[in-house]
Amino acid sequence: MRIDVYGKPDCARCKSTKAKIGHYLNKWGLTDSVKVEFVDMDTADGMAMGAFNDVGQIPVTIVYDDHDQKTARWDEVVPPSEDLARALNVQVTA
């Protein structure tokens, strides 16, 4: 699995998104099985990837399964932990 976070280095919500995803991957024991990529929208490559994936406003978070198919997407928000767990097939107990 892979998670792409589209954003800019100076974006507070982008930083929060990366931190939250990192926290939950660690908490759920997924740091070795889920790759996280930050796509810098301040670079030419980042803008090209963003255009290909219809990224308008940031942050945008996209989850891909093991077959490189998009399984979840959040635009302009930090993904809610329950939704992130569902996208990663994690059983969360209360």
Give an overview of the whole structure.
The chain has 94 residues and is of the alpha+beta class. The protein has 3 helices and 4 strands. The chain has helices at residues 12-27, 44-52, 81-87; strands at residues 2-7, 35-40, 60-64, 70-75. Strand 3 (60-64) and strand 4 form a beta hairpin. The longest helix has 16 residues, at 12-27. The protein is globular.
Q: What fraction strand?
A: 15-25%
CA radius of gyration: 13 Å
The proportion of residues forming helix, as a percent range, comes to 25-40%
Structural class category = alpha+beta
Q: Per the principal axes of the C-alpha atoms, what is the gross shape? A: globular
The string of secondary-structure elements, in order, is EHEHEEH
Distance from N terminus to C terminus (CA atoms, Å) equals 25 Å
Please tally the β strands and state the result.
4
- Name the average pLDDT: 95
How many helices? The count is 3
Please summarize the sheet with the most strands: 4 strands, mixed
